[in-house]
User: What shape does this take?
Amino acid sequence: MRGGAVVTALAAVLVALLGAAPAQAAGYRYWSFWQSSGGQWAYATQGPGTARPGDGDVIGFRFAVSADSSDAAKPRAAAGFGEVCDRTAAKDGAKRVAVVLDFGTPADAPDGETPPAARSACAQVGEDATAGEALAAVAKPLRYDSSALLCAIAGYPRTGCGEQVSGAKKDGASARPSTAGKSDGGDGGGDGVPSAGLIGGVAAVVVLGAAAFWQARRRRG
Assistant: This one.
């Protein structure tokens, strides 16, 4: 193949790779964990197994398809303590934690499952209890995977755990492709276009091919 044809072919490969970019990448279907901050929901910085809410705190859990913590859907109920725990009397040696559960929308549900209605409960647990223990006090059965990822609350969903969902949508909007609290595998993906490394690598091949072509022409001249 002549040098000009090589460059043309390599350029065509680059164009094909760019054109093959997925229009919409994947999200993850999982339970996200939230805490009340000033009466507003804030994505928890710890997992429910290590976070230790205080007496009068509010924690929330939302099941949805999300790309990552910045994309995660918040519980739709208010992050208020009074309406959940006012009827639960304080007790020595225990704390009261309001637990808000949002099982998500039908669009978030795995195939064949229907999300239960959202609900709240007041967990009265030991003073040193974690958020996970407060959740277990009011929303059994819980299901975890081998990595201690929370998979199901009150038995929902029946199967699955943080699985990837291709072309996912959340609350009527496309979830931005990334990872759901998982480490970025270094593939450069996550925005629906080929990674910078891939584009740069192919572009470099095209440039090198062009350089080889011109060098060959100079030698022949």
Q: What stands out?
A: The two ends are 19 Å apart (CA to CA). Strands lie at 27-37, 40-43, 57-66, 94-102, 119-126, 143-144, 150-152, 164-165, 169-170, 173-174.
